[in-house]
Automatic annotation (TrEMBL):
InterPro entries: MFS, MFS_dom, MFS_Efflux_Transporters, MFS_trans_sf. It comes from the Bacteria. Keywords: Cell membrane, Membrane, Transmembrane, Transmembrane helix. It is a multi-pass membrane protein. It comes from Aequorivita xiaoshiensis. Gene3D superfamilies: MFS general substrate transporter like domains (1.20.1250.20). This is MFS transporter. The keyword Ribonucleoprotein does not apply. CDD domains: MFS_NepI_like.
């Protein structure tokens, strides 16, 4: 049997262990970004900073991810994928460990920006790297497994890390995450296959991609879906207080997390075959869950079920949109996913700002109306985008 036949046979078997290892990278990636939000009061007291400055620890990270994703993905296209990923893991580890050791706010902000830059490159490149290790018919499955780490990070990792931070101090939390990232880097060094980079051509540049109508449709769906979800999610505490949900935000996040995990499993199994149907369902379920909040949100049991349905809608958001954009190009999938990833991060910032403005004028229910208003065109576009989401 020739080397090519052996390689093809290896690709046809889905490499679960490698994909789970890559999923651990997205798991620590989302923790690295969101971790300060769980220990904001502790960081405020220790560093003697105000609430806005503490919020910037997450905000600057996200801004750096959005700004640097496209240019740095383009610049690093020719890098070996394995060694680029190891470099990024090193950046994450250093950013977190040194943040846990220093006492100067400005230095910590610089370290957070470094972490954000690493994230801006990691999110799009790891999905493309994973796709190159599997047969084309498993591309959606690979993205779903790899990106499952983000859902696990939000639903399982964040509560654990926040508990560690509250019990042992935020510095222990940061240093501990950095050490865990180094362990993942060592395992990746020995386990992940070496994969060469690609040449960036005029036809695969970010500007060329923006001329493809199907890519623009997916970017529009990203904008609508992300603002609809995150506009409510960022202020989930306000929504819970408004509807007076039994069990408070902890119960809301529990049901939301369960729904997210279930939908990730569904995405792993069905994204490759039913991408359009799953995208339609994603927008449909957020509309249904938001309508339930409006009509029966305060009713015990029904309100909890609404959070579960919303979680089912939220879970596969990244997977479906990255799978969709990667289908529009044959090569340079990293660039395609970097464009989508930048729009995703930009949409989170728009969602946070727009929702904050609405909350300043209206009740938290205004965010629910915003989610419905954005999801209706999302579902209509998904229904008619047969070619794009095929």
């Amino acid at each position: 049997m020739s080397k090519q036949n052996i390689a093809e046979k290896t690709k046809s078997v889905f490499p679960w262990l490698l994909m789970i290892l890559m999923s651990s990278v997205t798991f620590v990636g989302i923790l690295s970004e969101l971790m300060p939000s769980g220990v904001l009061p502790l960081m405020m007291d220790d560093l003697n900073i105000n609430e806005v400055q503490t919020g910037n620890l997450v905000g600057y990270y996200a801004i750096a991810s959005a700004i640097f994703a496209i240019p740095l993905i383009s610049l690093t296209m020719h890098f070996n994928r394995k060694y680029l990923l190891l470099l990024l893991l090193g950046g994450f580890a250093i950013s977190n460990i040194i943040s846990g050791l220093v006492y100067n706010y400005t230095i910590i902000i610089i370290l957070r920006v470094i972490g954000g830059i690493c994230a801006g490159v990691m999110w799009p490149m790891i999905a493309a790297y994973g796709m190159r290790l599997v047969d084309e018919k498993h591309h959606g499955k690979a993205i779903a497994v790899i990106m499952a780490g983000t859902t696990l990070g939000i639903s399982v990792g964040m509560p654990i890390m926040t508990t560690i931070g509250n019990d042992y101090g935020w510095r222990t939390e940061f240093i501990g995450l950095g050490a865990f990232i180094l362990v993942i880097a060592v395992i990746s060094f020995f386990a992940l296959p070496s994969t060469p980079g690609e040449k960036l051509t005029k036809s695969s540049s970010p500007f060329a991609l923006l001329k493809i109508p199907e890519v623009l449709i997916i970017l529009l769906l990203t904008l609508l879906g992300v603002i609809a979800h995150y506009g409510v999610y960022v202020y989930i505490t306000s929504l819970v207080d408004e509807i007076q949900l039994a069990g408070g935000v902890e119960m809301a996040l529990l049901f939301f997390g369960i729904g997210s995990l279930i939908s990730v499993l569904i995405a792993i199994k069905y994204t490759d075959k039913y991408l359009r149907l799953l995208t339609i369902a994603m927008f449909g379920l957020i509309i249904i869950s938001m309508v339930i909040f409006l009509m029966f949100g305060g009713t015990t049991g029904i309100g909890h079920f609404a959070f579960f349905l919303w979680g089912v809608s939220f879970g596969p958001l990244v997977t479906l949109l990255q799978a969709a954009v990667s289908r529009q190009v044959e090569t340079a999938k990293d660039v395609a996913t970097s464009v989508q990833s930048s729009v995703f991060n930009l949409s989170i910032m728009i969602a946070s700002s727009a929702a904050g403005l609405l909350l300043g004028i209206y009740s938290p229910m205004s965010l629910v109306y915003l989610a419905i208003a954005l999801s209706i065109p999302g579902i209509i576009i998904s229904v008619f985008a047969k070619k794009t989401l095929s």
